[in-house]
Every structure is written in structure tokens, then in C-alpha cells.
Task: inverse folding
């Protein structure tokens, strides 16, 4: 086993980032058009019409906010239930919730029909580490999508990635496999999260998570310990 370290991953062009910037530009254009429409309505048809247009826009915005909040709550609940179920199913294993982001992390999963329905921009991944292997579980399914024997993992390191907006340094873990598998690329990058899907931002905590995935023996981790336990 190779010792862990902290690597740095620089910025790079990503199609998801291009799409995100495009969406922000489109939103800005639509907002400008909306403001112009409200002013024109107020001028041509009176202030009452302008207020009707404004209230319609605000109603639509509130509706979108409610839908977005409901999706976030549902996603967090799904992650929590998945972590709990896997911890019960594998009581002697290390259960580590994580998240893969297409915007910030390198491609880590081989594209295919098995990824249908999980989201192209990112999805939750739960690692279940035993003495024999590290299994990769998605939010749905009765079996892991991949399982890598521990002797096929070359090393696990804590890395930092640069956020596309603001240049923030975000801690993540990187699993270097000795060879790619049917569904995993040779290098897998993930953001560790707590058991409700919130990404961990403490670099030292992320380093401890990396050690728990591929422990060198220098810093033993108790079986069944989760990232929330590591914060205590």
C-alpha cells in the first residue's frame, strides 16, 4: 500500500460548467425581458396590469422554490435511509456516504444503461468497505453496482478540487485502482458526505474518511464508523 497524501486538482473545462453558465446567462436575459415587459405593461395598460404580471412572475418563482425544496428534502431522506439500511445489512462494515459531481470531479464511472435515472450531473454513492472489498451502492438497487477487492485498490488519497465559481478549494477523496472495472474507471473521485448527503468541508475529516476506505494501519478506524461519527 502506498501512503496517503493530499493532491491538488486544477480547473479544467467541463461541459456541465458550460451548461451551467449558459443557464445563468439565459436566466439573466429572461429577467431583463420580464422587467421590460412589466414596465411596458404599466405604461401601456396602466399600473394594475403591471402588478398582475409581477404577481404572476412571483407566483411562478415561489412555486419553483417549493418544488426545488421538496426535491432536496426527498434526496436527503433517500440518502439517510440508504445509509441506515446498509449499516443494518452490513453491521461490521464501514459505510461511507458520498457524492459524485460531473461539474467538479473527473469522470469516474463508465457510461451505460446502468446509470439511467441517477442524474447526469451527479448522484449519491455509498461505499461499503469490508476487509475483503469496497462495494459501490447507488441510491436504488438490491446489489452494489461495483465491488473492488481491497488488493485491487492501489491507494486512496485526499485531494482538493477548485470550484468553477469563486475558486474555492473543496476536499474530496480519490481511489486509484490497479485497473479499471466494467463500471469504474481507473481513478474514482468522490465528495464524502454525512448521512443526509451534505458534503464534508473539513479537510482533516476528509483525510480520515480516505484512510477509512483504505487504511494503512497507521490510523485505525472502528468498523461501522461513519463520517458523522468521525466528527465527534
Result:
Amino acid at each position: 500500500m502506498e501512503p496517503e497524501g493530499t493532491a491538488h486538482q486544477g480547473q479544467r473545462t467541463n461541459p456541465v460548467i458550460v451548461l451551467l453558465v449558459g443557464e445563468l446567462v439565459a436566466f439573466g436575459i429572461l429577467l431583463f425581458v420580464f422587467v421590460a415587459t412589466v414596465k411596458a405593461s404599466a405604461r401601456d395598460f396602466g399600473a394594475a396590469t403591471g402588478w398582475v404580471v409581477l404577481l404572476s412572475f412571483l407566483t411562478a418563482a415561489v412555486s419553483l422554490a417549493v418544488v426545488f425544496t421538496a426535491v432536496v428534502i426527498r434526496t436527503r431522506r433517500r440518502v439517510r435511509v440508504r445509509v441506515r439500511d446498509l449499516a443494518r445489512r452490513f453491521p461490521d462494515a464501514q459505510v461511507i456516504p458520498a457524492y459524485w459531481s460531473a461539474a467538479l470531479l473527473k469522470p469516474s464511472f463508465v457510461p451505460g444503461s446502468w446509470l439511467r435515472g441517477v442524474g447526469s450531473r451527479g448522484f449519491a454513492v455509498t461505499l461499503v468497505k469490508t476487509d475483503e472489498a469496497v462495494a459501490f451502492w447507488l441510491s436504488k438497487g438490491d446489489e452494489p453496482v461495483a465491488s473492488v477487492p481491497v488488493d485491487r485498490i492501489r491507494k486512496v488519497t485526499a485531494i482538493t478540487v477548485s470550484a468553477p465559481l469563486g475558486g474555492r478549494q473543496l476536499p474530496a477523496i480519490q481511489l486509484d485502482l490497479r485497473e479499471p472495472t466494467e463500471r469504474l474507471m481507473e481513478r474514482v473521485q468522490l465528495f464524502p458526505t454525512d448521512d443526509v448527503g451534505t458534503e464534508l468541508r473539513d479537510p482533516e475529516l476528509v483525510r480520515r474518511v480516505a484512510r477509512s476506505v483504505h487504511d494503512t494501519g497507521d490510523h485505525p478506524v472502528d468498523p461501522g464508523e461513519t463520517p458523522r461519527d468521525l466528527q465527534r
About this structure: The longest strand covers residues 153-162. The mean pLDDT is 74.
